[in-house]
Structure formats: structure tokens, C-alpha cells
From TrEMBL:
It comes from Luteipulveratus flavus. Residues 59-79 are annotated as: Disordered. Pfam families: HTH_24, ROK. Belongs to the ROK (NagC/XylR) family. This is ROK family transcriptional regulator.
Amino acid sequence: MSPSEVGALARLRATNRRAVMRALTQHGPSSRADLARRTGLSPTTVSGIVRDLLADGVLSQQDERGRPHKGGSGRPPRLLTLSAQRGAVAGIDIGHRHVRVAVADHVGRIAHELERRVDSDERGPRTMDVACELLDEALGAADAGALTAVGLSVPAPIDRRSARISTGILPGWRGVVPVEDLAARVNVPVTADNDANLGALAEVHHGAARRSQHVVYLKLASGVGAGLVIGRQVFRGATGHAGEIGHVRVQEHGTVCRCGSRGCLETEVSVPRLIELLQPAYDLPLDVDTVRALERDGDAGVRRVLEDAGATVGRVVADLCNAVNPSLVVVGGPFGGSTALHRGLQAALDRYAQPDIAHAVSIVPGELGTEAQVRGAIALALAGLIQQRDAAPIG
Ligand SMILES: [Zn+2]
């Protein structure tokens, strides 16, 4: 073989290895037949790759047997899993009002998790200090081995080329490049993405969208955004800003937004805005928990406000559905399980999405709740590790 043929073969092998590892990251323990089906590789190719990965210690074979084949004849297949004995990864979720850190092993099992309240919007550098303090504390408590990679979730658009946060949205982060800042402090690779994309990634790997190919994940919290999943991959667009629906203008003469425009979706339906709208009608001080309890008790005012919010955001989500044709809209954030919100969303999809598209889509609550972003950040860190292994020289 010529040197160029050898090179091409090595690249093909690396691509195939990565496909197998990605399938295991996404679907968990799998048989060789599962891997062949999910990667589209031939059973012989999969067997060869699995043999190499087992020899390298990247995969382990579970003692526990999988379920028998249909019909019950023959030996059940042995399940393969990514090895857990290769140090720790961390997920860091920076929200508008909190920092959450989770340390996990190399198959994504969380060993320790911590959260602290902090006003991250105003103070980028201080927030990074808090994140690092929590990370040290969590690593100490988890006893999960050396840190090998970090995934970071930020509550604003982040440019996938420069890794800079949009400071039009978060002015307190001017001059801070969180990926570089963190990588310099922890001395391991750091990858970052926005909260909606990572919520989408987590729901695809571990939550409501685990069996879906094409998904719109809606994050309705202090900010509003969407993560688009196409063929089980998060679609980020040219610069990482795909799905940024928070600043779509929905009220011509609405409230002035932090982005400089007015009447943005985020100023109309963010969770703080909904609570502010409801508060004058109630004697007790409202927060997320009291609003959810009032909805369960059938409170007419709460139901009305949440249903209207669903309709407002649904008008924008309907356009996204027309573009993406998803089978699922996953609603994340504290009101993700609100039936009134879902009713409003459904009405807007029925009205504004193309009928065949509206018919094909189901609206479901996120299953991971406030864990979604940190779980997504861990998945991102693990995906980064797979890419590094792939880029390493091949013997
Ligand atoms: Zn705006």
C-alpha cells in the first residue's frame, strides 16, 4: 500500500471508532448488533473496532447479559459500555441566578453535585471564581479521579468560532472568554455551549427525546431560547446562534429588552416576567413553586397567564417547526410541565404551523428539569474527549 492509502485507511478507522463511541455515549450499553445498526457499519467492521477498543481499555464488556433474542433461542448478546475507570469529567451550568457543578465518571454517571446562588448576569469574573470553587469542592467530595475535561453551559449566545459570549445580552461578561478563562485555571480541555443547546443534548441522551430524531427543545426560564436537534445531533448553525428565539419581536410596542430592542419574546414570557404579571393579584409572595401549586389547584389567573404565554411562545415555535419538521417539542424550564402552557403552545401550533407539520409533532415536558443543562454540559465534555482520542496518532 502507498503511504497515502495507509493514511486514508487510518482516517477511516478513526472515523469508525468515533462512530462506535458516539453510539455508546448516546445510547448507553449496547450489543455489537446494536452498534452495527446504529452506526450503519458492517458487523465485521464493528467486531474489529470493538476488539481494538477493548484491548485499549476504552470499552468494557458487561458481565450482566443483555436480553435474549426474540424467540429465546441462542445465547443473549454481551453488552459493551464505555470504560468508567478513566478519570472524571465535570459539567458546569451557569444560569442567570445560579452556578451548578456536577462531577461525573466517563460514562456520565454523576458522582457529586453542588449549586450556589449568584447574580451571574452582572458579574462574569466573580461567577467564574464561584464555578471554580464549586468544582474544587465537588472533585474533592466525588473522589472520582483526576479531572480530564469540562463542559460549560452559559445563559447567552456563544460564538462557536471565538468562544465569546454575546455581551449585548450579558454586559457583565465583557472581556471574559469563559472557555479560555476556565481552561487556564483547570488545565484540561473546556468546551462550552448555550443553555438551550445543552438542554436539548441532555434530553436527547438521557431524557424525553431519547427515542426521537428531530426535536425542538424550548427553554423557558429567566431567558428564552431553543435548541434544534436534527438527526439526533444539535444543530448550531454557522456561528452557534441557531435557535436563538428569545429576541424575536412579538410586541411592536412592548417593554424595552436588555438586547436594545423592545417587545422581545423574552421580555413577554420569561419566568420572572410571568411572576411579575401575576403578583398584583395575589397576597402571598409568588415564586415558581407557588405558581405551580396554584396551577395544580386550578387557579384561573395562573392558568390564564400560562396559557397565554404558551400561545405567545408557540407562535414563534410554530415557525421553527415549519422549518425543522420535528416529531417532538420538549418544553424545559420550571414551567415545562404546566398543562396550561402546553395548551397554549398546542393551540398556536395548530393555528400557525403547516397542518401536516402540526399533526406530526407532540409537545412533552422535559424529563430532566433543572438538571438538564449540567447533564448536557457533561455530555459535551464527553463528546470532546471522544474527539481528542480520535485526533490522537493512530498506531
Ligand atoms: Zn431582546
